[in-house]
Amino acid sequence: MFLFFISTCQAYEISEIGKKFIQECEGLRLDVYPDGGGYSIGYGHHLLPGEKYEKISKDTAKHLFNKDIKKTNESINRLLKRFEGKYRFSQNFIDGLADLIYNCGEGGVKNSVFYSRLCKCRFKDGKIDTSDYNFTIAAVKNLRVSEPGHITRRGKVYKMMK
Q1: What is the CATH architecture assignment of 28-161?
Q2: Measuring CA to CA, which residue among 33, 72, 37, 42 is closest to residue 146?
Q3: What are the structural domain ranges in the chain?
Q4: Could you say which of 30, 41, 91, 145 would form a disulfide bridge with 150 (CB–CB 3.0 to 4.6 Å)?
C-alpha cells in the first residue's frame, strides 16, 4: 500500500521586487562574456554545456532569466525544507536568499557559513531566536565575494534580509 502526502505548506518564491533586484545587480548583457566560472549572457545566465549563445535578444534574455528564476525557486525550497513547520521566513529573507543562490549557486550557499549558521538557529513557538538570526545574516556580507561589485551587492542583500 502506498500513501501519498501532499504538503500543505506554501512553497517559497522570489517576489517581483527580488527579481528586479537581481536584474539590476546582474545588468543586461546581450553578448556572451566571461565570468568567474565560465561564460554568461543576458541577466547573468551562466552558459550550460551545449548552450552556444554568442548574442541574444532582450526577449531571449528574459526567457533565460525566467528559467533561472524557476531553478532558483526550486533551490530556495530545497534549502529551506528542513525548516518546514518550524518557521515561515519573510519575503525579504526569501528575496535575499534568491539573490545569493542566483549569484553563488545552490551548492555555494549550501556550503557557506551563512547556511551553516542558519541550520543551527533556534526556533520556539514559530519564532526564530533574534540573536541567532542576526548572527546568521551577518555572514551574508562575506559570502563568496570574488568581485569588487559583490561587496556592495552583499551589503544590500544583508540590509534586505535584516
Answers
A1: Orthogonal Bundle (1.10)
A2: 37
A3: 28-161
A4: 145
